[in-house]
Amino acid sequence: MKFQLIHIGIKEKRLKGFRYKRLINSGIFRGNDTRQKLIDCQGPFHGWTNASAKNWVYARVREQKEGRKVHIVCDCCDTRCMSSSCEHTLMDKNTENRRNPNCYGQELVDLIIDLAKQN
Ligand SMILES: [Zn+2]
Hints:
Distance between the termini: 12 Å
Bound molecules: zinc ion
Radius of gyration: 14 Å
Strand content: 15-25%
Number of domains: 1
């Protein structure tokens, strides 16, 4: 099974056919800051005690099993694209291009795909 779960930055264009799921609505992070996880969402997933955050993750796992295309969108990066030839993915080329080196976006994508593979 091919999973289509892609992490993008807040100013990056959405790919066609992809749902848009923002990490600030996941219940995993403090306020609107996707750089800081809540204390009950740290460490291995099975140890998380935050029920609404876990439910958000399970909802994303379900979507992957249903074959949906989904973007996971953080607020701490403008784009996750590394190469300068990817500037076209920015909605506005004149925008600044923040990129948080410690972003949790990809880690959460990997977690969701792992869980989707497991069961
Ligand atoms: Zn980020």
